[in-house]
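Quick note —
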Amino acid sequence: MRLSVVIVNYNVRAFLEQALLSVRKAMQGIEGEVWVVDNNSSDDSVPMVRARFPEVRLIANTGNPGFAVANNQAIRQSAGEYVLLLNPDTVVEEDTFRRCLDFMDTHPDAGALGVKLLDGSGVFLPESKRGFPSPWVAFCKTVGLSRIFPKSRLFNGYYLGHLDEHETNPVDVLAGCFMWMRRVALDKAGLLDEAFFMYGEDIDLSYRITQAGYNNYYFPHTRILHYKGESTKKGSLNYVRAFYQAMIIFARKHFSGKRAGLFVLMLQAAIWLRAGLAVLSNAARKVWLPAADAVLIFAGLVLLKDFWANYYYKDPLYFKPPVLWFNFPLYTAVWLLAVWLSGGYDRRYDLGRLLRGIGLGTVLLAAIYGFLDLEYRPSRALLLLGGAWAALSLTALRALLHFAEFRNLHIGQERVKTLVIMGSPEESARVQGLLAQAGVAANVVGTVPAASPGDGARDGLSALVRIFGADEVVFCTRDVPVHDMLDWMQHLGPRISYKTVPDGSRSIIGSSDKNEPGELYTTDIRYRIAQPEQRRNKRVFDLGVCLLILLGLPLALFFFRKTKPLLRHWWQVLPAQKTWVGYAPAPGNDTLPRLAPSVFSPLSGWDNLEIGADMAARLNFLYARDWSVWRDAAVLWRFFR
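Predicted structure written out below.
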């Protein structure tokens, strides 16, 4: 057997489906086998592989042992002369495997091979070729010198910037997303080191292959598409911690003495530095708009105070100092909290959510106002004027931001994307049906027959994109070869987005940023309980019930028998170890969005009814799909009733 392809998957069903379709085409005429190791995915990856790819040898783990362990599971059982480790978020060209076989057969010194990697916009990924992370190389990458001097041998040794991306060269490190290895070299070097959970195992294995007397080659004469960021967001704390901890494991394993100590110390410093930057960056992205809103509201309240004191009370000093350090901060905080709870920061251009939040905040402040001491009740008119100002100023700010981003004032309206589809009329119609079913607002300006840029179609597609200002090009991979698709992406450039539609798939896949997870339009079921704003609302509901229990503790003790479950689980719900309402025990719960263990379920209150496992599973499905605060409240009410 010539080739064994090993793919480790975790919760990227749509991307795995596309990868396997491309692998199926690339394997034609080659004696080989394909292995998929699934690390306990909850997104129907395993049933999809069994249904659509019966030729694939599947290992379905019941837990997530990590990338290295999962690869080793398949490698030990594989039989190919060559072993390819391939990520599930990749697409290979039709002749990729044939070209790699030819190169490896004619270069017996080659122990491993990597190819040219392109991101979802068709842009070359520098990690296609890398150097070993010596202390100096790691230092230059950590402090950003490699980015400042991308072509320098001295400062960009991490990405070997001095080597031409179009030339074949021996390199130190290959990317784990596509790592083609000679079996005899792998036998000498050993399998992946299972001390690495994620990241670093490719560096370690590349290093051991060279120690075994072989070369690693960068081979740019075939390309693959790599949708980066599917397992961990590049800017997240999880990524920073996992990446640099992997580097520390590598340093302790392969360096010794003072060199190892210096390297580990520098990497630990890098963890704190990059973690701090990640925290600041993530915080800035989340708080800049609420901070701007707070400044606008507070400044407006100060101006309204002066105006109302002069206009109505005829006394510039009418309002006492507490209004500045107590009332205005309180008003601002309540309005911002109400906007947040209404989802105004989840969809910043949704004026309905914004105004609903301001309205709810004003009502809440009016209620609070009546309970305040007289010293802290300056003027109800000032509160109402402040609410009006908050609504107007925050709406104006969003209109300004919307114009800066989209160059129009259609604020609050769903932006309609302009699409060009390349493929057959039948596939184009299917794509438009998928877009409609997924609820994606799109204006399809044309369908272009499948063709390569060199077939005379270059001007046609380019003209459509330019004249209509297309936002996206959608490639139907049943009709468009991967080779031609990559040519088009590199020809049109990264200024527009690209999507692919795998043959027979219910999903439209793409990625506009190598540091972010891929984008997915799908007709698969969308669970409300999985949406971030709904999960936040559920958490707020749990905390609200905890607060009510605390306030009503004397009454709860009076009705102890009925409130015993609440009192017993209160301490677990408060820190989010449990949730008040969740799934009932039933088969198939592992395919639903994960929730904390629950105190009650949709079955609570129906104790006298005999409900089978299928009915319980159906209730859990409906609970996850259609969740709302009122559903949780109804379960609690039914329990007490």
